[in-house]
Amino acid sequence: MYFDIAMPLTLFFVTLASMLLSEKTESKLKSVFEKREFALRDSILLATLIVVMVSLIVWVPQMGLMILYLFSYSMLLFVFTYLFSNKRWYLAIVPSAVFVLLYIFFKDTPIWFDYLFNFLFNVYGVIFAILITLYIGSLFTWKTTIIFTCLLTVMDTILVLVTGTTVDVAKKTIGLRLPVAIVIPIVPLIVTEGGVGITLLGLGDFLFAGLLAIQTFKKYGKKFALLSIMAMTVSFFIFEAFLPTYQSGAFPGTVMIICGWLPLALWKRLKH
Fold first, then answer.
1. What DSSP assignment string belongs to 183-252?
2. Mapping DSSP to helix (H, G, I), strand (E, B) and coil, where does residue 182 land?
């Protein structure tokens, strides 16, 4: 049996950053959405759309998929930079342009693959994980979060363990060198004939953990939210340590995360 501390710590710090930044960014983001919030039907619709999109991506040609992701990421960078640069569009366009140009001109070169890819892939992955969480998190309430995360956990389990669709999508997008996940070496290092052992966690799982942390923060305060992040991290660590013994291949990250958050949330609910 092996264990890994690198990915659980990454999950902890990225989720913590999303939670702390939400306090500073939510008011501006809500002004963009005119203080609208998801109703129950909206959260159900969003979970359904995510499943549909993941299922369809398998059939999208590589060029179309690359354009779709580049456009989505560029718009996300543009929106956040525009809002927090006092709506200066000429500043907002810079991060998007840098990201697209780096990808287009260096993705197929040894420079990107050997040096930039390993670094920028994860840096941009962290950035996008936090930005997506802040963007989506501002639209949810406690009630819609519960519905959304429960639906997403069930659907993620089916897409990973039953159909394998999520695994196929991950292979396809990472093959295009798109930052759709965070990929880091296992620590303590595991060296085999194939190289250093690595671990991977999709940006959707970081969004999942961040959304739970943000809503817990808004519902019960910073101290309990921090405790919930620690619980999610410990749960993820335990799953990641024991799964290789009993489960080969991918396992739904949402299950690994919610198993840490749910008992704590239920205890808090019953206590109140």
1. EEE-SS--EETTEE-EEEEEHHHHHHHHHHHHHHHHHH-HHHHHHHHHHHHHHHHHHHHHHHHH--S---
2. strand
Least confident of 103-112, 141-150, 169-178: 103-112
Distance CA 84, CA 63 (A): 32
Domain ranges in the chain are: 6-267
Query: In the structure, what pLDDT confidence band is assigned to residue 271 with cuts at 50, 70 and 90?
Result: confident
**Mean pLDDT of all residues belonging to the chain:** 85
- Looking at residue 144, its pLDDT comes to 92
Instruction: Judge whether 48 and 152 are in contact, CB under 8 Å.
Output: no
Instruction: Express the helix, strand and coil content of the chain in percent, nearest 5 each.
Output: 75, 5, 20
